[in-house]
Amino acid sequence: MPAAATTAISRSAPAIAGRQEPGPYRVAKTTHHERRPVPSLGSDVAAISQAGGVMEDGGMDYQLYVGIDIAADTFTAAWLAPGGEAAAPFTGEQSSAGYTALQRRLRATDVPSVATLAVLEATGNYWVALAVALHEAGYRVAVVNPRQAHHFAKAQLRRAKTDALDARDLAQFAAALRPAPWTPPPAVYHEVRQRLVARDGLLAMRTQARNQRHALLQWPVVVAVVRQHLDELIADLDRRIASLDAEIAAVLKHSEWAESLACLTSAPGIGLVTAAWLLVGTLNFALCASPDALTAYVGLAPVPRESGRSLRGRPTIGHDGNGRLRTALYMATLSAARYNPAIKSFYERLRVAGKPLKVARCAAARKLLHQAWALGTKRQRFDPDHQQQQHATSPQLAA
C-alpha cells in the first residue's frame, strides 16, 4: 500500500459449490512491509520493503514463473520460463478439480514445484483456497497487493484488460520482482481472528439496536412489545459479546501466544481485545522487522508530501496501513493517556506544546505501539519505573 499500502487481511473463503474448503489455514498479509522470520511457521515470512516495493527472494533460483488471475468462480493462469515467452493461458474452476488440473499442467513442464513461483493478487477472499492448495503441493506462492500488480501493468503501457492478459502480467511481475514466498499463518490466528471479526459485527449490531431503542423512546406513544423486543435483542447481544470475550481469552491463554498476551496486557491501556488484535494483526510481531516498520504497517507513520518548490504538503498518516489495528490503538490510547506513565507524560507534553487533540492522540498511539513492540518481542512485563530508571542512567534523556 503510495508509501505504505493497505494490508489486506482477507476473511475465510465463502463456500462455493464444488470448492474445496481451505481447511485450517486462512490468509496472510499482503506483502508490503519488511518482515522478519517466523520460526514457528517453519519458513521465512515474506520480506518486503517499507516503501512498498517487493524485495527479491534472492535465495531461490526459480525455473518457472506463474501468474494467476483470480475471479469468484474461475481462475486464469499463465507461466513463463526465465527469458522465455508466456505459455497459453489456462482457465480453471475454483474447485479442487480445477486446482488439480492446474497442478497437472504445471507438472507437465518438468519443473520441480520448489523451483516454481506462483504469484496471486489478494483479491477479496477468492485467492485463499488456491494459494493454500499450491502451498501444500510444495509450490512457492507469493500473494501481492493488488495495487502493486495494477501499477506494474500500467507500466507496460497496455490499455487492454482481460483475465488472460492479467495472468501474463502477473507472470512477468513474478519474473521481474521475484516476491518472497507467502506462508499460511498458524491455527491460533484463525481461532482468534474469526472471533474478533464476529465480535466487531455484534458490536455494530448492538449499537444499531441501541440507536433504534433511543429513537423509539422519543415518540409520545411507545409500543411496549416493540420496546421489549429491542431490550431482549440488546441483552442477547451483550451475552454473546461477553461469551466471545471469554473464548478469545481462553484460546490465547492456551496457545503459543500466551506469554505475549501476558506481556502486552501488563501495560496500562492495553486490554484483552487490543492485545488480541495486535497479536493477530502482526502474527505475534513477526510481520515487521523493527518498530518503525510496524508503525508504517499500522499506518501511524506520517507520510511526507513534498516535490520541488511547488508542493509542500503537511505530513499526514492518511488512510493506508492496517485500519483495524490503528483503530484499536487509538481507542487504547484514551486509557493509556490517563494511566500509563510513559504515555501520559508524553501526551500531556504534546498538549502543553499546543498540539491538536487528535495529533497528540495519534502520536501517543504510535508511542503505545512502540511500547507494545518492546513488550511483545522481548517477552517482558511492563515496568512503570523503566522511564525513570533510564533518566537516572542517562540524565540527558530527562532534559
On the 0-100 scale, what is the average pLDDT? Answer: 84
Regions with little confidence, pLDDT below 50 for 5+ residues: 1-55
Task: Give the strand order, joined by hyphens, for the main sheet.
Answer: 3-2-1-4-5
* First-last Cα distance: 38 Å
> How do the SSEs run, as a string of H and E?
EEEHEHEHHHHHHHEEHHHHH
- The counted number of beta strands is 7
Q: Any idea what the CATH architecture of the largest domain is? A: 2-Layer Sandwich
What shape does the CA trace take? globular
The CATH topology of the largest domain corresponds to Nucleotidyltransferase, domain 5
CATH superfamily of the largest domain: YqgF/RNase H-like domain
Question: Could you characterize what this model shows?
Answer:
This protein has helices spanning 96-107, 128-136, 146-154, 163-177, 187-216, 224-253, 258-265, 272-282, 291-298, 323-339, 341-352, 357-378, 386-393, 395-398; strands at residues 64-70, 74-80, 90-93, 116-121, 140-144, 303-307, 311-316. It is α/β, with parallel strands linked by helices and 399 residues long. It has three domains: 39-177, YqgF/RNase H-like domain (Nucleotidyltransferase, domain 5, 2-Layer Sandwich); 190-255; 291-398, no CATH class. The strands form two sheets. The chain has a five-stranded mixed β-sheet with strand order 3-2-1-4-5. It has a two-stranded antiparallel sheet with strand order 6-7. 41% of the residues are buried. Residues 1-55 have low confidence and may be disordered.
